[in-house]
Amino acid sequence: MNGGQVQKNTLYVGGLAEEVDEKILHAAFVPFGDIKDVKTPLDQATQKHRSFGFVTFLEREDAAAAMDNMDGSELYGRVLTVNYAFPEKIKGGEQGWAAQPIWADADTWFERQQHEEEMRRLEAEQKAAMQEAERIHLQKMATEREGEKEDDTNAADPMAMAEAEALNQKAS
Per-residue pLDDT tens for 94-116? Predict the structure, then answer.
């Protein structure tokens, strides 16, 4: 989904009915283990929750059990979506984590640009080497074909063979 680190003890709970508040959400999830925190972010304009919330368990195993059992279940007539939560993101900055300033990824951006430039240079060198190897191979194949043609012309020419045989007989 995104490149963020999953918070394995915090669950996202989506599809909440308007009647559900933090107390009801706490009551629905407490059977799975001790709960550290329950949040239902409010819409600034209406001051009502935005149909989702977060439940943070003390233990990861409890969060996993709650997710397995509550995902797809019904609460106040609405089907819940329960997943592991991702850290809050803010606009700006490549990684986008709220705990980092926008400029925090400037060094990694510069390093990545240098790495990409080096990769392009290496690819160009490799392409040139492959083209040179191809040229040498084709030249070698052409030389071998010319040698085969000379052998074929001598072997296929009966007059040349007869002359060679006659010269051999005279020499003996």
Answer: 444 555 566 666 667 778 888 89
Cα gap 144→148, rounded to integer Å? 6
43 phi, psi to nearest 5 deg: -75, 125
Q: Are 70 and 59 in contact (CB under 8 A)?
A: no
CA distance 33 to 47: 29
Q: How does pLDDT run across 53-88, given as a tens digit for each residue?
A: 999 999 999 999 999 999 999 999 999 999 998 876
Q: CA–CA separation, 142 vs 46, rounded Å?
A: 81
Burial of 105 (C-beta count, 10 Å sphere; 0-12/13-18/19+)? middle
How is residue 162 written in tokens?
């007869």
pTM: 0.49
Whether 93 contacts 101, CB under 8 Å: yes
